[in-house]
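Here is the promised in-class demo. Please do not try to memorize the tokens; focus on the logic of going from shape to residues.
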């Protein structure tokens, strides 16, 4: 299945529909833009997996989630600057024959991630 992501807004108890997400391929300090998208009503990439197994390459990646922009769009009053703005998750892919699912659960004040299934 390759690489996928999913975002849940735990402040409102729903998927983070409309959140902007950017995927980069990284190599040391260099980051190459792969894809930008907005999450669908289920909090997922509307085009499905970010990579399928045939396209996923061994290496390092970065997902950047626009947490502050999402909560502002929902009408949440955030301080200036917000406590969380862009949340970046750097992760590695060691086995391209496996599924890498990188979920994010967030509020304006906290976030958590893990390697999902």
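The designed amino acids, position by position:
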């Amino acid at each position: 299945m390759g690489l996928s992501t999913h975002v849940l807004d735990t402040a409102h108890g729903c998927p983070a529909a409309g959140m902007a997400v950017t995927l980069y391929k990284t190599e040391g300090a260099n980051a190459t833009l792969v894809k930008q998208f907005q999450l669908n009503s289920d909090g997922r990439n509307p085009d499905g997996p970010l990579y399928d197994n045939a396209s996923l390459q061994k290496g390092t990646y970065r997902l950047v989630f626009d947490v502050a922009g999402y909560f502002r769009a929902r009408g949440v009053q955030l301080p200036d600057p917000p406590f969380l703005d862009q949340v970046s998750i750097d992760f590695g892919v060691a086995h391209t024959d496996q599924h890498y699912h990188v979920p994010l659960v967030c509020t304006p004040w906290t976030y958590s991630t893990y390697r999902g299934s």
